[in-house]
Amino acid sequence: MRPVWAWRLMMLVAIPSLALFAMSVASQLPYVLADPTHKDREGVLLWATVTVAAALSLVASLLFRLRGRMTPAILLVAVVALPALALIAFFLLIVGMFIAKDL
Helices 70-102 & 3-34, crossing angle to 10 degrees? Predict the structure, then answer.
């Protein structure tokens, strides 16, 4: 497989996964920021930081790709895409367990 296609496939996984994750974090962020005694404050702020870092990684990967340097571009997008694939597999496992429970 050519490096360009590997990069494109990983971007195809990373961008929608990151968008869904960012929406879920952003929906909780106003409540956490408004209440300093919120029990999940540190966790949500940590996940918000991880989301921003992942988005910056994808932007840096795109910039490396535009400059023609594929190795750093693939490594940066893999940092986001591979954990996203693991989370998708974990989600499918949980959904499958719920479906199998009702059979």
Answer: 60
Cα separation, 78 vs 7, whole angstroms: 8
> What is the C-alpha end-to-end distance of the chain, expressed in Å?
41
Single-letter residue type at 82: L
Is the distance from CB of 18 to CB of 80 less than 8 angstroms? yes
d(CA 89, CA 97): 12
At residue 87, what is the residue type? L
Distance CA 53, CA 70 (A): 20
Structure confidence by residue, pLDDT tens digits, 17-68:
888 888 988 998 999 899 989 898 898 898 899 889 889 999 999 999 999 8
Q: How far is residue 103's CA from residue 87's CA, in Å, rounded to a whole number?
A: 25
Nearest to 88 by CA among 26, 9, 11, 17: 17
Length, in residues, of the chain? 103
